[in-house]
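Late entry, written up from scratch paper. The run itself happened at the end of the previous shift, but nothing got recorded in the book at the time, so transcribing now.
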Amino acid sequence: MAMWLYDERGYGAAFFRFVAALPPRKRAIAGGALPNLVLRPVANVLPTSPHGQFVFAELQPDAAHSTTNSAAWNATATLTKAQVDTHLFVQFQ
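Output as recorded:
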C-alpha cells in the first residue's frame, strides 16, 4: 500500500493505492429489520431514466446479473456541463 498526503490552503486529502482491491461480498437481504419494511421484486417492466438537462444517460439490460424471474439494469451517466444541478433516476412503472 502506498499513501500520499495533500494539504493546500486549508484543504486536505489522502490518496491510497493498493496492489489489489476485492469488492465486498453481496449478502442476501432479509426483511424485518426495520418496522414496515417489505421486500418484493421490482415490477417486470422496461424502466425509464429521467435525468437532468446536462446529463447524457444510458440504461442497458445487465445480463450478467439478471435471472429468469428478475431483470437487472445498468444505468450510467455522463455530465455534459460543469457546475449545474444534476440528477439521474431509474423509474419502474
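The CA atoms of residues 6 and 13 lie 5 Å apart.
(Scratch paper discarded after transcription.)
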